[in-house]
Amino acid sequence: MKKLLTILVTLILAIGVVGCGGSGSGTATPTQAAASDPADIKAIKDRGVLKAGVKVDVPKFGYRDQATNEVDGFEIDLVRAIAKKIFGDETKIQVDGVTAKTRGPLLDSGELDLVAATFTITEERKLSYNFSDPYFVDGVALMVKKSSGITDLKGLDGKKIGVAQSATSKAAVQAEADKLGIKVEFLEFATYPEIKSALDAGRVDCFSVDGAILFGYLDDTTTILPDRFAPQEYGIASKKGNDGLAKLINDTINEMKSSGELDKLIEKWEIK
Predict the structure, then answer these.
(1) Start and end of every Solute-binding protein family 3/N-terminal domain (predicted)?
(2) pLDDT at 103 over 70
(3) Where are the beta strands (DSSP E) in 73-182?
(4) Given the DSSP bridges, would you call strands 71-72 and 206-210 parallel, antiparallel or unpaired?
(5) pTM for this model (two decimals)
(6) How far apart are the first and last CA of the chain?
(7) Quick one: how far is CA 198 from the chain centroid?
């Protein structure tokens, strides 16, 4: 009897060892998968939410509905796609409003994981931030009052042009003005609604920013001139050193391009 018990115990232990050894060759557990994440992705997962800087004053791209206080738009949909890639759940996002002047510092401080806010990719900016491949290409444009009679950039000789602080619009328009041999004066504003108000009030003669942004402010009293300057490639920015996140963002954008999902979103938001 004692001998039989010894044999049974030995068999049970043997089965246990085989079982433990077999589990190592199967599918990775969630804990094992999480352990393989880059540190920056793991930090986001541990927090439970993706923090994104977006525009809240650019219709179609990122705009806050004054009635509901909800922010939505093309770039918010991009943030949702990235969150789905990280969490498997597109709702795990926290979006914070940024301007051309504040988006960089908020990334630098670590308050944001990424910025999807009509952020133009430039060689200078790539020295400070990781950028995804472009998800939209636009050009700097000009909006004027219909009553002004202005039909092109030459007509703005000696006039005032309103631009956003820290945006690329000023340099683009100045370069074209120099080519034409005309003089223009720039007034810088913190937000796009402020520039539009200045145009309506006659404090500036022109509102200049990327064409797709201007279309969101077009009304019966204004017109957008056909001129387009300096192609503006929009990319999603993340902090230098967060290379795992940068790769995930870029993979997501390129997968959306390949699948046609990016074009569907542009069509959904009627972006021109």
Answers:
(1) 49-272
(2) yes
(3) 93-97, 114-116, 129-131, 136-145, 160-164
(4) unpaired
(5) 0.83
(6) 86
(7) 27
